[in-house]
Amino acid sequence: MLTIENILLDYAQSLQGTEQFPLVGWQIHSDKKNVIQQSWQLQIGEDSAFTQILHDTGRMESVQSQNIQLTGIELVYSRRYFVRVKISDNYGEESSWSQPAEFITGLPAEKWQGAFISAEQPEDNATSKGSLLRKAFYLDRVDDISSVVVHASALGIYQFYCNGQRVGNDELTPGWTSYHHHLLYQTYDLTPLLQEGKNAVAASLGAGWYKGDMSFNRYRNYYGDRTAFICQVVIHYKDGRQQTLVTDELWRASDSPVLFSEIYDGETYDARLEQAGWNDADFDDSQWRSVSLIDADKAVLRPQGTATVQQIETIDPVAVLITPQGDTVVDFGQNLTGWVSFTVKGNVGDKVVLRHFEVLDADGNVYLANLRTAKQRIEYTLKGGEEEHYHPHFTFQGFRYVKIESWPGTFDIHQVKAVVVHSQMQQAGDFSCSNPHLNQLHHNILWGLKGNFVDVPTDCPQRDERLGWTGDAQIFCRTASYLMQTRNFFAKWLTDLRHDQTAEGGVPHVIPDILTDRCDEDRFLAQGNTHSAAAWADAAVIAPWTIYLMYGDTTTLRNQYASMKGWIDFMRAHAVDNHWRYKLQFGDWVALDAKEGSYFGATPNELTCMAYYAWSTLLFAKAAKVLGHEADYQEYVALYQRIVHSFQQAFFTPTGRLAVRTQTAHILALHFNLVPDAFRERTINTLLELLAEHDGHLVTGFVGTPYFCHALSQNGHAKEAWDLLLKDDFPSWLYQVKAGATTIWEHWDGIKPDGSMWSPDMNSFNHYAYGAIGEWIYRAAAGIDTDESGPGFKQIRLKPLIGGGLEWLNARYHSLYGDINVGWKVVPAGEGVSRVTMEVDIPPNTQATITLVDAEEIIADDGLTFSAEGGDYQAVTGSGYYQLEYRCSMPQ
Ligand code: BGC
After folding, report:
1. Confidence (pTM)
2. Nearest Cα to 53, choosing from 61, 63, 41?
3. Which residues line ligand 1 (CB under 6 A)?
4. Ligand 1 nearest atom to the CA of residue 459, by list position
5. pLDDT tens for each residue of 862-884
6. DSSP H or E stretch at residue 613
7. Tell me, what's the pLDDT at 368?
8. Which of 47, 113, 228, 882 could form a disulfide bond with 118, CB atoms 3.0-4.6 angstroms apart?
9. Which parts of the chain register pLDDT below 50?
10. How does DSSP assign 520-564, residue by residue?
11. Nearest residue (CA) to ligand 1, atom 4
């Protein structure tokens, strides 16, 4: 049977707020193999029963089932719409109509009627306290209302209420963007919440990224000095009338029980100041004060329809410890990002005080030093009497442990739980194998993502940083996209990247950029720049290209095209003979071949800059080709070739020696294809020597590490790649795992073998950067990749690399087309030979090339036709589940 499941609108299962008719895609299910869609038909309705069909595309003969852009469809703003699809396939089978998918349209910038309103005065600029806003209104009748939608946003962070109820599941909205250019609003359906007679809408506000004390420089008010709220409630009546309620000078304002709340430092909350029913219709707000109107640009408001931050899961503590110093510490068993939610009973004025932190020191005591100035402290004052429940509102913490500094009565483990908070995304990857340490590494990489995808891709979630460091995001982007469906998350962040780019095309080190003009740290001031470092700024090109590869998404590529070009042109403008240099570079950041105590690895910036210049220029040229910018394509391919030529002139001796003798230099040259063919073997051999010099260990930093295993396996050294991945003594990925890590560390030597730690100045235990090895695990070891000719896994490449001494491996990647599964088992079958059984699943409407590496004989082909191809066996197939068996030379 042919069915359609999982209609995605703008890549989301639920889209609340969109400017235009969303991109549509769907998954096809069938009991047949080799299914290809022949046609589709889409209808747009006003209700889920489709009694009123607003648009019908008719039957479209097309194989396309993703990234479908319908044009010319007029939508009314602030309205719900329903979409359904049916298809036919190459067997002549027709599906029935899909379940409807639903979306709500946003509010165009020019339709915002309300004002930004604030409960604060200019003299509140130095405080980070919360405030409350509310407005009561009457509705004569509700039975003639067809739907009610609210659009809301804030300067700061807001929580929205209607008739006493919290609206939506979102946290920390409107998130963090380049607010002056790009301020997101959220959209919610209020229809079921309104009542006949008196109603109330209300908001609770906090300082957040907008006004709070941010960055390691601790500057406050980067974007503004007063929090403010804006909303527009749009009521649609059945007879077509429309009524709106907006934020204006008639709203009422009050202080809130939140006495202090900031991203790094935590929250101070006094429950004695709670005003019962403050957000209810009947509440008497006559004692509240008037609001002030804030002059802020409404033209920058854009809908955030999906990928908002939410409470994703909860974790119970695993133990309560008393440290040698006598502190009571709760251990959640997992380093995570979010907050503690607790239940407490006590007397009025009693206090709960919690400090959040990541690791215990070598003696088993509380270790706060690596948080630097971030307090990560929660103080809650009880109102007394009944049980009280609390979790913070406008902050988040990075922690595994919580020190109980104050608790009324005896603390009980059941009174607390950790709430994991991050941007909502669908999990895309699953991995397990016969090596438990590798499984834990995968777990740690995933938790690195969860901990650092809190609205922007951050370096770390705990210390006074939590910034959208471009380099970290660049190297982790592909891995992240194997683990989660990241398209909307990155599309949002890239929007801010392009807004924050310098006029010349330079790319700030952090996005949103809060370092420029507000940075007094020596390392930046001495060099005079807060933008445009190789491998960091290249996020401008590599991230949109990755999103294109993973999702076939040309929309993001198109939106970012000028930004991508801007970055390449920046490098070109600062290049002499294709060597570009610009002020402060981070190089192979935190590599182990750095001088003692330094963060800068041994690979010279000249090489890193040029290697990335070549790589980004190539990717940009490819993007130009995809988007049909032929002249740009020609121009930038030619530029790319000149850069490669200059690189080879500069760094290879006439006899083929790469003049920079570091692992990272060799990895970049190999992986970015900068090695003349004649010198490839020598280059790979030198890389192997450089590995051997460290007894098979890496000494690479942010730049070299992500590609190390690729550079080996792509050049005939899969065994060495596996060995490197599975090394488990210092320094290595599994060294951390064996040391008990539950996320990825910033430094290979975060905790050294002797138990001492890297300097607290810069020692995060939740830094996803080195988790970039996840890409190799999915793309090379499990062998699930997309072909560039059919991006978004329309054309799949399955080429598992059996090895690592594993007995079995199972991996799933949930592509837009459906699940791609690869599973293999290997058993020794005598003299240097293994017998492999392999199962693969290929989703409908895609095609896959399956390569069986080093296969010598196919025992079971499940109807596929394999042919020998360069020492391997290869077959091309359509969708379906296949069980294969073959003999191959024994993987080591
Ligand atoms: C961050 C890094 C970042 C680096 C660049 C650090 O403070 O945590 O991950 O990329 O600075 O200098």
Report:
1. 0.97
2. 41
3. 459-460, 465, 469, 471-472, 586, 589, 762
4. 9
5. 999 999 988 899 999 999 999 99
6. helix 605-626
7. 96
8. 228
9. none
10. --HHHHTTT-SB--TTTTTHHHHHHHHHHHHH--HHHHHHHHHHH
11. 469
